[in-house]
Write a structure and sequence with these properties.
single chain, mainly beta, three-stranded mixed β-sheet, elongated
Length: about 240
């Protein structure tokens, strides 16, 4: 209540358990609550909410991001020089977040499924500075829940369309053929995207018609790049 649409809630990771002292202290704060029965070094530590009596429990409803961008829009521009026309259309979005399903499955590391290269920075004895949780094969330990490590910026700048057009002068053969105007064009759509989002496409969504629930990227197929060419004529 009183908050904007598109909020993403979950657990907030405060760090990775790096040693036995961290592990013992974290378990002590949780107390007798068996939230993470197989907790170990390399697992994430979550923000805790005081329960009283010196104990705390994980706060599963902290706001970890907002799917809705702070601003978005487009830029449409056309240039003409003699018989040449060039038109392009850019779209952009800034400030939104996406929950990346591939990251969740990579951390869970179930079966023989591919994992994202982001897990190369996982915690292990040879990489104690890693900012990703340890990998546990077929992870069903129950210590990993949706958190801000699964969120990534969905800001982007995309060249949506570009069109090049050439208009022929009215020569005798064009008039003889019955043309009032004749031109040729070539165009492309979804030419390139500038983004730091690690998934296939920062515009993807499991529910593109929902601001409230359309923040989950399940690795849908990205927007297709297409090219076309043709002739435009009027009689």
């Amino acid at each position: 209540e009183g908050k904007p649409l598109g909020l993403i809630t979950g657990l907030t990771v405060t760090g990775i358990i790096k040693n036995q002292a961290d592990l013992d202290d974290y378990k002590k704060r949780i107390g007798p609550y068996d939230y993470f029965p197989y907790l170990g070094i390399g697992d994430p530590m979550y923000q805790l909410k005081d329960e009283g009596g010196g104990y705390a429990y994980p706060d599963f409803n902290t706001i970890i991001g907002n799917a809705a961008p702070k601003y978005y829009g487009g830029i449409n521009q056309q240039f003409s020089y003699k018989n040449f026309d060039l038109q392009f259309y850019f779209t952009f979005s800034h400030g939104g977040k996406l929950l990346w399903g591939d990251h969740i499955s990579s951390v869970n590391f179930v079966g023989s499924s591919n994992a994202s290269v982001i897990m190369l920075n996982r915690y292990h004895p040879g990489n104690t500075s890693g900012n990703q949780p340890r990998v546990v094969l077929n992870n069903d330990n129950g210590f990993y829940y949706k958190n801000q490590l699964d969120l990534f910026s969905s800001s982007y700048l995309k060249l949506r369309t570009i069109t090049f057009n050439y208009r022929f002068n009215k020569t005798p053969w064009i008039e003889k053929a019955g043309f009032k105007n004749l031109s040729v064009f070539a165009s492309a759509t979804n030419v390139f995207t500038i983004t730091k989002y690690p998934g296939n496409d920062p515009e993807t969504s499991n529910d593109p018609y929902s601001v409230q629930g359309g923040y989950f990227d399940v690795s849908n197929y990205p927007t297709v790049r297409a090219f076309s060419a043709g002739v435009k004529a009027s009689f």
